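Predict structure. Chain length: 127.
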Amino acid sequence: MGKPAAGAVENPGRLPSPEGALPSSRWLLALLFVALLAAFAAGIWGTILRPPAYEVRGTVVARPAPDLLLVRHEAVAALGMSAMELMGVSADPALLDAAAPRPGDRVTLAVRARGDRIVLLRITKTP
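Prediction complete.
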């Protein structure tokens, strides 16, 4: 074997690597870690800021106004309501029109408390 060429790095059993390759891959890995950590933190933070939504099952009693639905429901402990109380749910009229709830329909609602109102997020008819 001859002498290594000038400027060559000896690393037996490995391919020669360009100068600075290892530090740049470390920076890339560190940047990826920070990006994933930031995305995880943003996801957690979003759930902290937004109030929780609750699932309510019940029977439609009436729709006295375009943006109001009256439901006789099962117990919702998180909202402090026992079973069979009458719940007035505020809703976007378009959301109610799309579901077309009729008196007597069994429904599952996703609701959120906003101040002294219960606001409808989603409605589906259940068999």
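Summary: The beta strands are 54-65, 68-73, 86-90, 106-114, 117-125.
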